[in-house]
Amino acid sequence: MRKRLTWVALLLTSLVLLLAACSGGGNSDTLQNTSGNNLNTGAATDDGSGIKPVTFSFYGNYDWLTTSPWGENEATKWIQENRKVTVEPVQSGGAAGEKLNTMIVGGDLPDVIFTDRGSSVERLVQAGQLVALDDYYEKYPNFKKYVKESTLNLLRSDDGKIYQIPNWYTSGQFGNGGWMVNKDIYNALGRPALETFDDLYQYLLLVQDKYPDVVPLEVGEKGAGLEIMYGGFKENSTSKFISLMGYPDGDKLSSILDDPAYEEMVLYINKLYRERLITQDALQQTQDAVKEKVNTGRVAVMVESNITTYGAEGHRALTASHPDSGYEIIWPVHKAGVDKTKVFVSGFETLGWNVSVITKQAKDPEAIFAYFDWITGPEGQKVLFFGPKGLYWDEEDADGAPIPNEKYKTTPANERTDTMRKFEDFNWAGNTTFIDTAKMSLEALLSANQKSWETVAQSTVTWKTALDITQFVNTDPLPDTETGIIAQNIADIYTLAYAQMVQAKSDEEVLSALDTARKNTAKAGLDKLLEFRTEKWQENVKKMNLTK
């Protein structure tokens, strides 16, 4: 049920929201531009998009997020000097919800809030604190061009207006979840078949015997990779159904706990846990602990929702001293008899990841939207992903994709990737389709040893094994409603039951814990929750069918 990143829910009370509705504007200290490489600087130009100089405050509503100072890398420095746009980060300090509450009570909301879709946004909409963006979507060119109408419809709030700017939306297929193997270990053990869960079990036993200091199967931070296995036990399914607590059964959602594929999954996971083929603290381990094992090669096989990031970092670490080492992406492991072409590790939504909203504190919301529209267009995406013209590219191909220059080709892949990641942190209106197409075009011009690990993994496996689950967005009830309280109670019941099933001492204990979970969730109102989510799901289907 855990997503790759820990989303922060906004716990705003009615009093806080009323105070916010009556409060005035806020401000933050202006960040000074720092020196750096001067790349194609010049006066701001009118490219027809309506961009004009603007300075705005930006708050990332996540405990884990620290927004770097503006203008300290080549991309944001270029934007500041050429587009005359300056962003003033407001930091969460590791306590995002509390920080936002404080800003609301103090009447000091930032101009832009970067947050999850759903209750975080809708509470601010209900408080009248956000700017409706419908007219801007009509006026400016790039979102109108790249975002499907069905996607925009799913961003509408109950009042029919759009307040959200999507990030990493797509009109194609994408995904970063999957399986990988340690090349050194896999080669040394003769590269046996790793297609079915039976194959995997035998291979993990072999690793355990031959490499006692290695984790046979790594499953990520807090065991995030475990539930990903669900897609291997059933065709056309992903772990999203576990987070919904229901799987599609005709035109309704039925309890995930009654799905035979779920039962098979927890029995298999428990078997691996009992035989110490996965880390014994899998459900508690931190991301740093996982990265340390991956980056030092103490992992034989890994399954994770963000395998491309773990794999790329681990591959770079291992190949720095041993070029033939590293990690290799593999097709998802699945149950014997399941069609491998219908196995999906992860799910993707055309809406993408999260959203930005513009608050009524902003002095010039249209200028802010115009900047975001520029970000999501070809020039903005190139600057905030590959860097500005003159760094790693000088020319474009016929489709507008950057052509790698000599610096791109000669800069060590590790160094180049680290630099580009700093740009990507500011890409708050990521256009997945444009970037993926441009990456593929760019990588096609490189030799095998110059290609990035992520791009190879994505193009060969992870995109192909991601299922479109857009129809299930916006199916969570608001937390302070009756259904929302039911959802939280069921989540608590499930968390405890799942840990009991994973760590059980026998199959009988697994089945006993599963049966207890069925009874407890039923008493807590699972049927009512699934009715609510079914209704929202079917509403989405109608919206999407009307505009596909």
UniProtKB/TrEMBL annotation:
Concerning PROSITE patterns, the annotation shows: PROKAR_LIPOPROTEIN (PS51257)
Xref: InterPro entries:
Bact_solute-bd_prot1, SBP
The residues that cross the membrane are none
Keyword terms of this UniProt record: Signal
- The superkingdom of the source organism is Bacteria
Question: By its UniProt entry, which Gene3D superfamilies does this protein fall under?
Answer: Periplasmic binding protein-like II (3.40.190.10)
- As given in the record, the signal peptide range reads 1-20
Name of the featured protein: ABC-type glycerol-3-phosphate transport system substrate-binding protein
Species per Swiss-Prot/TrEMBL record: Paenibacillus silagei
High-level lineage? Bacteria, Bacillati, Bacillota, Bacilli, Bacillales
